[in-house]
């Protein structure tokens, strides 16, 4: 069986980012391919962030946001998941 997964190297050990279906002490062969580092500045739309900052209303409380968002029908989490599935 072959499985491809992402892992992080911490403290001298590769740690999988998701559970593995392996038996304790089971031997495996590991091939390591590094993932290129992402430069956040290449993806950050600074102009849009400045626009959002100019429109921000800091007088609105968290309770007001919760009250308004609770009136939205359905699940916001489901909408986000569906949107991600469409893009990927």
Commentary on this structure:
- With 88 residues, the chain is mainly α.
- Helices cover 39% and strands 9% of the residues.
- The chain is built from four helices and two strands.
- It has helices at 40-43, 46-55, 62-69, 76-87, and strands spanning 7-10, 13-16.
- Strands 1-2 form a two-stranded antiparallel ribbon.
- The radius of gyration is 21 Å and the shape is elongated.
- It starts with 6 loop residues before the first strand and ends with a helix.
- The model has no long low-confidence stretch (mean pLDDT 88).
How is this fold's topology laid out?
Elements: E1 7-10, E2 13-16, H1 40-43, H2 46-55, H3 62-69, H4 76-87
Antiparallel strand pairs: 1-2
Keyphrases for this structure?
88 residues; mainly alpha; two-stranded antiparallel sheet; 4 helices; 9% strand
The largest pleated sheet is described as:
2 strands, antiparallel
Helix content: 25-40%
Low-pLDDT residue spans: none
Number of strand segments: 2
The structural class is mainly alpha
N→C terminal distance: 25 Å
From the spread of the alpha carbons, the general shape counts as elongated
- Which band does the percent of strand residues land in? 5-15%
Any idea what the radius of gyration is? 21 Å
* Overall pLDDT confidence: 88
What strand order characterises the main sheet? Answer: 1-2
* Contiguous helical run count: 4
User: Could you state the order of secondary-structure elements as H and E?
Assistant: EEHHHH
């Amino acid at each position: 069986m072959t499985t491809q997964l992402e892992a992080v190297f911490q403290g001298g050990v590769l740690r999988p980012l998701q559970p593995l279906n392996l038996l304790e002490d089971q031997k495996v062969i590991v091939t390591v391919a590094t993932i290129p580092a992402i430069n956040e500045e290449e993806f950050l739309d600074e102009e849009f962030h400045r626009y959002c900052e100019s429109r921000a209303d800091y007088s609105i409380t968290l309770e007001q946001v919760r009250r308004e968002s609770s009136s939205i029908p359905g699940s916001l989490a489901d909408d986000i998941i569906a949107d991600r599935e469409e893009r990927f």
